[in-house]
Write a sequence for this structure.
């Protein structure tokens, strides 16, 4: 049981480190090419918009949690004290 918990902890820490060092991964839909061929036309990939990369899920979660924390802890500069 302790070995399984340690393995899960190491895997999670490794993925967090990967998300911090390399936040972008190759697009899965276009295989990192940026374009897709449909019938006889070549179009930009809808998922990556031709950038050939996508934001990793772990990095997206980190960015969202930072945004939520920042919105919840910083005072609104536009608000007046009597409101």
């Amino acid at each position: 049981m302790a070995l399984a918990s340690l393995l899960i902890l190491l895997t999670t820490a490794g993925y967090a480190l990967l998300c911090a060092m390399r936040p972008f991964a190759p697009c899965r839909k276009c295989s990192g090419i940026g374009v897709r061929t449909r019938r006889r036309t070549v179009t930009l990939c809808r998922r990556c918009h031709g950038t050939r990369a996508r934001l990793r899920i772990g990095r997206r979660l980190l960015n969202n949690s930072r945004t939520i924390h920042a919105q919840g802890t910083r005072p609104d500069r536009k608000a007046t004290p009597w409101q």
